[in-house]
Amino acid sequence: MSEKLDLTKERILVTGGAGFLGKELVRQLREKGCQKIFVPRSAEYDLTQIEAIKRCFNDFNPTVVFHLAARVGGIGANQANPGKFFYDNAIMGIQLIEESHLRGVKKFICIGTICAYPKFTPVPFKEEDLWNGYPEETNAAYGLAKKMLLVQLQAYRQQYGFNGIYLLPVNMYGPEDNFDLETSHVIPAMIRKFIEAKEAGHREVLLWGDGTPTREFLYRDDAARAIIMAAERFDRGYPVNIGSGQEINISDLALLIKELTGYCGQIAWNDSYPNGQPRRLLDVTRAYDSFSFKSKISIREGLKNVIEWYAKFLAEIKVY
Q1: What mean pLDDT, rounded, does the chain reach?
Q2: Is the pLDDT reported for residue 296 higher than 60?
Q3: Residues 117, 142, 156, 219: which is the catalytic one?
Q4: What residue ranges define each of the domains in the chain, with the CATH number in brackets?
Q5: What's the whole-number mean pLDDT along residues 161-187?
């Protein structure tokens, strides 16, 4: 176990710090006592452009970088924008890592994606299986772009001694998620559909796929806590899964959200839409062994929190 990094003494750059996961990460960093935190906004710093990255580093001179910024979306968004998803995610990360190396950044924490895993990875996914096949086709461009950053970090560690770590969080959810049906992931999309159907009195909710795939979900607060624990305690070059270690069938997830939203109608499945990867469940042993992370929030508790947040959000919109 390496010596614990005291983040309260560091100048911290959080790319994507205004996003879904980034907001919670920044909140938890501030709660720990970190005061020198810089969150670059895309309107001012386009991180796909090297000059913007150089200006960002000049403006803040970070000693630790959390790279969360990404071009992301659900199956539909990935299918519609594979070129953009590949280029933007690859170029952002490649240039940020290079500039961090050149500027002598003490530690670089890179957030990858389990979309990088092969389509038919044995369950539970073990980190050593990461290269044993091609990713699921609907999000392969995104997954491979992010996986190249692991290659870069390992190469820079080998050649330059650069301290970069690579974390693979499972599907995340929580308050303030993206509820746009065009770009959202499965949990916020389902919550919105069930709530809207309940309010409109619809007898049926139509969902994508056939309900057979399984997924593992991690509550946003747990994910942010894991990232901070890794930043403080983990200094190795190999990738680490971040998850809950709990698997749920998509059809069972739909039934649970239906129950928690109080919707009384029927569920229908449109199997003309793709299911995505058949199963996703991570082996989370390495995260526990490496920096003692274990998730705390159950899927039922987490979903209840999100549904309550979204209902409150809708009520506030109606007021205005």
Answers
A1: 94
A2: yes
A3: 142
A4: 7-176+215-247+279-298 (3.40.50.720)
A5: 93
